[in-house]
Amino acid sequence: MIKIADIRKHAARWPQRVAVVDGETRMTWASLADKVSRVACAIQDLLPETRPARAVFLAENSWELVVSMAAVSSLGIPCVGLDYTAGPVATSAALDQLEPTVVITSKAHRGLVEECGWPNGRDILDIFIDSEPAGLPDGQTVSVSFTDLLVSAPGEPQPVEQPFEAFSFTSGTSGVPKMVVRRTSFEARRFADLVDQYAFDEEDVHLVTVPLYHASGPGWARIFLTLGGTVVLGPHDDAGELIRIIQDEGVSTTLMVPPVLARVVAHPNSEHLHKTSRLHFVLSGGRHLNRWVINNAWDRLGPVLHLYYGTTETGVNVMIGPEELHVAPCRSGRPMPGNTVVVLDADNRPLPKGSRGRVAIASYQLMDSYATSEPDFMTLDYGGRTQRFLLTGDSGLVDEAGRLELTGRNDGVAKAEAGKPLDVNIFGLEADLMDLPCVRETAVLRTSLPGAGEVLVVPFTPVAPERQESGYRAVSAACARRVPCLPAYVVPVESIPYSPTGKVRAAQLLESVLPLLDLRPAESREPEPAGV
């Protein structure tokens, strides 16, 4: 998050300009500078002597959280948020990896932290962001409310003396979240690249729609705060309110994960945003966007939609703009400056364009390590130079125009066995299914089932109840045509569950549909749709 020095610079230049909007709260640069100074100095006085100092938060988006993040950043303390929807096992694992000295919680998620055994008398500073500490002092833990920090005297916060570190957590889709560690900062270079390429400036108003615990939230907000622009906090689950904010606040840039973007461009109130808003840059992150979302975004928002792909471990690596999205809707983009993307075979040799394999990335944004394991790095002579690549868990191909197309998620590409393909284009199948007029949304899950072996489980939501049967048949036919090597179990569902950061809750979805599947051999199954 932005630091006090930059905040004061903007406050001196335009003290009454709005810096942060959160509902009815409109915080000017002068007010933000005053609050961050007070909170940072108070934290400095209460900070445990344990080093390295590290901060963590479990709290929903709010202006109080923005101030808290800016305060600890001003003290040189790395600050990372945890996914408060992940549950106690994942949360406990993340806390144990980070070993924070400052814990910031909101009332809504305080119970989760305590369920994980924190703070439990540890030598930490325990900040209650929207409530008062309850009970007597607990061991060495110092508990304080954000309100008390805010009424402290302002001053000149002094950064703690410790080496630079930055942390983030993977989503934990393949197990518990892994803590990603970086020991050098790449922010200045990425900031310069993005500002130069997309002409961002201090007149921009940026709408935050993702939780600030997701790296993309504070990462993109920091760009516009550093420029002296305005950041508006919006709800990820209310498309109508997001549209109102875009119009009323003069929003010019935003990042929306694909499910949120889809809901916004499907909402009737978004029909004329291309004429009634200041939007000039809308970003969505992920593997690909389906053609319906791309076309609707163009019609309703204008030619402003960009898609990027990156990972927690590699940063922001490829980007594609609105014009190319129309001609190549399944692509994730071209490498950005300072990034190299290569696709490898099962023996980690580079593949020619158009061949599917494991995606590896070289970048100035690469992680240094995980907290508890070693990353899968390799050194490769590619593009006329020797580069250090991280082998990702994604598979895909690079097309003839140099654009990356992601095709699936793997724990590394395995060699083909018993006629099975090296890689199945799961994402391409999803895109084909979303082009069917009877399908509202779908997720293709590749898994192993007892007695059936490796299969595809394909939940889909029909556009209307009366289209369920025709949708079942159309989806089944598309799966058989696109991926004939794997049996597909198709089941209609009421909805596809997503996290606030736009990821399909695959485990939850699979658990809910397994009882609906007919697992008899294909020749003995009736060609009727499973029930919702």
Automatic annotation (TrEMBL):
Keyword Membrane among record annotations: no
One Gene Ontology term of the molecular function aspect: ligase activity
Transmembrane segments: none
SUPFAM superfamilies to which the protein is assigned, alphabetical: Acetyl-CoA synthetase-like (SSF56801)
Keywords: Ligase
Pfam families according to UniProt: AMP-binding
Record domain AMP-dependent synthetase/ligase: where: 8-370
Record's protein name: Acyl--CoA ligase
